[in-house]
Amino acid sequence: MKELSELMDFRPSIKVVDATLRDGGLVNDFYFPEGFAKALYEANVKAGVDYMEFGYKADKEMFDVKKFGPSKFSDDDYIRSVVGENDTDLKIAVMADVGRCNYKADIQEKANSPVDLIRVATYLHQMPGALDMIEDAKKKGYEVSCNIMAISNSQESDLKVALDLLGKSSVDVIYIVDSYGALYPEQIARIADIYGEFAAKYNKKLGIHAHDNQKLAFANTIEAAGDGVDYLDATYASMGRGAGNCAMELLLGFLRNPKFKLYPVIKFIENHMNPLKESGVVWGYDLQYLMTGVFNQHPRTAIQFTKDKRKDFSAYYMEVTSQE
Amino acid sequence: MKELSELMDFRPSIKVVDATLRDGGLVNDFYFPEGFAKALYEANVKAGVDYMEFGYKADKEMFDVKKFGPSKFSDDDYIRSVVGENDTDLKIAVMADVGRCNYKADIQEKANSPVDLIRVATYLHQMPGALDMIEDAKKKGYEVSCNIMAISNSQESDLKVALDLLGKSSVDVIYIVDSYGALYPEQIARIADIYGEFAAKYNKKLGIHAHDNQKLAFANTIEAAGDGVDYLDATYASMGRGAGNCAMELLLGFLRNPKFKLYPVIKFIENHMNPLKESGVVWGYDLQYLMTGVFNQHPRTAIQFTKDKRKDFSAYYMEVTSQE
Question: Between chains, do B313 and A2 touch, taking CB under 8 Å as contact?
Fold first, then answer.
């Protein structure tokens, strides 16, 4: 049983990472309303959030800049247009996917960039690519984290090899990522234990990025926090792909560090997230995501179900289970 | 850390209690569409649910029968009109609130009733009333459970006195109830530990009834299940007062006893719960409930906020915190 002090007191090493523009951008092709990013930045500063993820560093050879909003590419100039010189305690993050980022050209030296943290996202089979990106970013002067995605479908022995490779790399933070929203808190505790062994051995920090397919994104995030995981991803109103993420408003309601403020989060949701939802942008927990979560599948068929505005959940159940 | 076997295997003593008509009825004054209760009963039978709660046994001197649907009063005749002689493994439950139930007159001998389980609901200060109802129901031949409500606002020492009184009574099951949706899984683990001491000493079973104010109803329910709690309340599509309850579809997706089937639950939600929601009946997690949960308050102001169709969440935040 965890210590009560974990709830009543706080661990200063816990960092909150706002992923709204990045994971949220996956549901609207990164087209946020005028002024949204700036207002979000200001809300994050007021709320005491530690990192704000601006989006992906997507390769412009692969993705048409005319078909996505600016957070798909997160150019330094775009970020500067929002944060200026960013004279705040809020750090700026961007995500770089292995195989979809021309990182040698598109990621500048840290000295010339408003970005603080490069978040490398990888599947297990792409580890050498991830390691090259990690060393590139580190050499340029950034903090670097690495998300190993889709671990609920991976072999524990493979995962341990990857964790050992990351341990030996320059990465600062290793993320537990429940891409399919398939994991229960008990499993998060066990996984945090495995990651924790490597973190202790190699002096790395840990993070968690959860999905809400089974309404467990927040529960899994605080479970991980209680297990020693320090970097906690969240999004306003849970905005994110499919079922969405751990809600910022739940997370800041839970954390006891007095630097965190709930009110600016509520205010931002009222003024920006709820209007976004009312404008027709769709995300969040629903039965189709529950099903891919329960059956530990990629949410892509559930996302299609949502796009098609289908309501025949029982027929979809048959489709999902026929893929088993 | 809990045993992996808790996830992979199952504990046959775990019982699932469907509370849709009772807790769900609180949001529509128990006016469910024609055929709803019967279809729900059939879904529960197919899904392997153990108990179906039909509603309250409300005192007709206190509540006008013309202002509520039949599940407010749960007359035996009404229940029989749905379940006939109930030749199934599904047991029938009703809830009786201390101070709002004319139990001596309105609860018949078990031999003449389709009801199996009487669920007594009490606040700590009403314990003598609860004990009288428990003994009355037990003498009439029923299984009896007792919900101690609003424990997140109670003193632990008072709670222990109540648990000792219940231990010495004829009650079969003692329920952990998070009325305000204020508790985190770590706290549930500690509370289950306290309840567990009394359960072991007096040979009682334990149950849990959770609310979804912080999207933790399911997480808290499976935390409790892992801590030895056997009776798990859930409602279809989380229907229940305010933020609602632990979702039946999440719970049956989690439990590994092969007698539980998810498909009939999905089917019922598609055919009955989603149309109910589309007809304008409102329940479920939202920011106003998060706030009463975080600040450990009764949800009544949040329910009023919902009824008034207010959207000024930041103003409501100021109202909630001014009550601290």
Answer: no
Per DSSP, the three-state class of A121 is: strand
pLDDT, residue A265, reads 98
B216·A214 Cβ contact <8 A: no
Q: Residue B165: is it exposed, middle or buried by C-beta count within 10 angstroms (0-12/13-18/19+)? A: middle
Task: Give the contacts of B5 (CB within 8 A, at least 6 positions apart).
Answer: none
Residue A1 has a pLDDT of 52
Residue with tokens 């009333």: B129
For residues B268 and B293, membership in a common domain is answered with: no
What pLDDT, on a 0 to 100 scale, did the predictor assign at position A7?
72
Same domain for A36 and A129?
yes
d(CA B1, CA A306): 37
From residue B202, how far is each of A11, B15, B170, B172, B237 by CA, in Å? 39, 20, 10, 10, 35
Q: What is the mean pLDDT of residues B108-132?
A: 97
Residues B106 and B20 both lie in one domain: yes
Residues of B with CB under 8 A from a CB of A: 1-2, 4, 6-7, 184-187, 189-190, 193, 212, 214-219, 222-223, 226, 247, 249-250, 253-254, 262-263, 266-267, 269-270, 274, 287, 290-291, 293-294, 311-314, 317
* Model confidence band, residue A5 (pLDDT cutoffs 50, 70, 90): low
Per-residue pLDDT at B254: 96
CA distance A206 to B66: 59
What angle in degrees, to the nearest 10, is found between the helix axes of B300-307 and B313-322?
150
Tell me the whole-structure pTM to 2 decimals: 0.96
**Model confidence over B285-309: pLDDT tens digits?**
999 999 999 999 999 999 999 999 9
Q: Can you give the CATH number for the domain in which B82 is found? A: 3.20.20.70
Whether the pLDDT of residue A3 is over 70: the answer is: no
Q: Answer yes or no: do A154 and A14 share one domain.
A: yes
Query: Could you tell me how many helices (H) and strands (E) chain B has, helices first?
Result: 15, 8
Contacts 24+ apart (CB under 8 A), B273-280: B273/B236, B273/B237, B273/B239, B274/A311, B274/A313, B274/B237, B275/B33, B276/B28, B276/B32, B276/B33, B276/B36, B276/B239, B277/B237, B279/B33
- pLDDT score of A267: 98
Residue B68 placed within a domain? yes
Count of all residues that appear for chain B in the document: 324
Note the pLDDT tens digit of each residue in A143-166. Answer: 999 999 999 999 999 999 999 999
Q: Quick one: pLDDT at residue A4? A: 58
What range does the domain containing A295 cover?
Answer: 287-322
Per-residue burial over A106-139, b = 16 or more CB atoms within 10 Å of its CB, e = otherwise: bbeebeebbbbbbbbbbbbebbebbbebbebbbe
Chain B residues with beta carbon closer than 8 angstroms to that of A6: 186
What residue type is A321 in one-letter code? T
Strand, helix or coil for residue B91:
strand
